[in-house]
Design the sequence.
């Protein structure tokens, strides 16, 4: 009888242990599940913070790039207030943990003091939210946690990089480059001056004061009264006049996507202007001057008229005032540049406001031009980023009277010369001042 009682007690004890283990496991699993909810919330908020920092850093760097100040002797420091404002606006437009970031939770810094700051400015954006609420971690007395992230973007202009890098600059390769091969001659002056835009070997900018100038113009005794228009193949270079680039797979492939509706029926040359040429054009690479001047078959009356027609399509101009984007003249000093969206800007919410990008802002390759008439292939030694002004209608400017020309303003200059080596920096878009994230990798 005693043995049977002992065995029965042990069975009861075993049942109690199983019950306790089950309760304990249930508590642990529940706690882990509850904690995992907090971990996932924290992880999601961390990803949101990183996206906010990435976008803000890129926006700030783009503001530096489009300011024009990376091409001037003063350097980009004058654009820092604008870059800070834009980066902060982009960051606070993002939510982290279900709430939009506050201005006080965003910090924007620059690499001032670095020896390469003038040609390679960095924008670092740090976002941090200190009051992310927890759910189940409150059991341990933790009601709020901090979450944050940081990102750095650069606005790289190779023009002066050779000075800091043993005479060699890493080239850039912008997208959407227009098929206008511009000789390396100051386009704002007459041929009598003959000053180059870039040092053909190093890519250094010869005259940084060209930023903000353009052609046609009335500045100085040797000003160029002509706008941007074609130079005949087989003719010696002239200031501000381009040689047409070859519209082919090797040079300027014809864009086939995202073409504006107004480009219907355009020639392949016009499509390369109105659309985005999909192939990056690398500084230091060769290009081919188009040899089809005769028998060039225009869409209108000649290539210059075709150019004007395609430009008007690109910049949303139909003959009315205020339709196109413009350089905001109310913002002083200028540079730094800001761009005002016109009434026909395709982004309705942008109309009447300053914008970071504009279809009127285009990049033109600059080619090395030894003495005499250039022969194929020619070498791209740099780029001009110019703003196509609303006066892109037929402009009766001499010489010759009645020629279809385009008025442009120089926004950026980026040269890398014939000695550029290394993998080209693609950057972010059409700007010759490459904008890209460099941190986090």
Sequence:
């Amino acid at each position: 009888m005693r043995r049977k009682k002992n065995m029965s007690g042990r069975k009861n004890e075993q049942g109690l242990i199983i019950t306790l283990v089950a309760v304990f496991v249930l508590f642990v699993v529940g706690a882990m599940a509850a904690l995992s909810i907090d971990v996932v919330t924290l992880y999601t908020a961390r990803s949101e913070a990183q996206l906010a920092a990435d976008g803000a850093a890129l926006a700030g760097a783009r503001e530096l790039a489009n300011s024009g100040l990376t091409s001037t002797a003063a350097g980009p420091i004058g654009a820092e207030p604008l870059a800070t404002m834009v980066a902060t606006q982009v960051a606070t437009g993002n939510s982290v943990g279900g709430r939009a970031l506050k201005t006080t939770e965003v910090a924007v810094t620059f690499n001032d003091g670095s020896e390469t700051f003038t040609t390679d400015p960095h924008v670092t954006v740090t976002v941090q939210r200190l009051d992310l609420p927890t759910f189940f971690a409150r059991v341990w007395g933790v009601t709020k946690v901090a979450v944050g992230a940081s990102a750095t973007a650069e606005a790289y202009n190779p023009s002066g990089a050779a000075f800091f890098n043993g005479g060699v600059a890493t080239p850039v390769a912008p997208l959407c480059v227009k098929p206008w091969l511009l000789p390396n001659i100051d386009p704002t002056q007459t041929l009598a001056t003959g000053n180059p835009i870039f040092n053909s070997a190093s890519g250094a900018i010869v005259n940084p004061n060209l930023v903000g100038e353009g052609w046609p113009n009335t500045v100085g005794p040797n000003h160029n009264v002509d706008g941007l228009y074609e130079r005949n193949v087989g003719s010696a270079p002239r200031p501000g006049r381009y040689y047409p680039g070859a519209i082919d797979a090797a040079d300027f492939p014809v864009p086939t996507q995202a073409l504006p509706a107004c480009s219907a029926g355009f020639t392949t040359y016009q499509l390369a202007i109105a659309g985005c040429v999909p192939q990056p054009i690398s500084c230091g690479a060769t290009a081919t001057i188009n040899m089809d001047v005769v028998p060039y078959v225009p869409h209108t009356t000649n290539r210059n008229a075709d150019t004007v027609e395609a430009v008007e399509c690109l910049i949303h101009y139909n003959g009315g005032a205020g339709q196109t984007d413009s350089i905001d003249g109310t913002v002083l000093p200028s540079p730094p540049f800001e761009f005002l969206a016109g009434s026909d800007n395709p982004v309705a919410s942008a109309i009447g406001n300053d914008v970071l990008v504009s279809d009127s802002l285009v990049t033109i390759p600059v080619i090395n031009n030894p003495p005499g008439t250039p022969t194929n292939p020619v070498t791209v030694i740099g780029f001009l980023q110019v703003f196509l002004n609303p006066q892109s209608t037929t402009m009766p400017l001499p010489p010759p009277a009645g020629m279809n020309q385009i008025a442009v303003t120089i926004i950026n200059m980026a040269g890398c010369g014939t000695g550029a080596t290394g993998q080209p920096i693609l950057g972010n878009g059409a700007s010759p001042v490459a904008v890209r994230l460099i941190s986090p990798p």
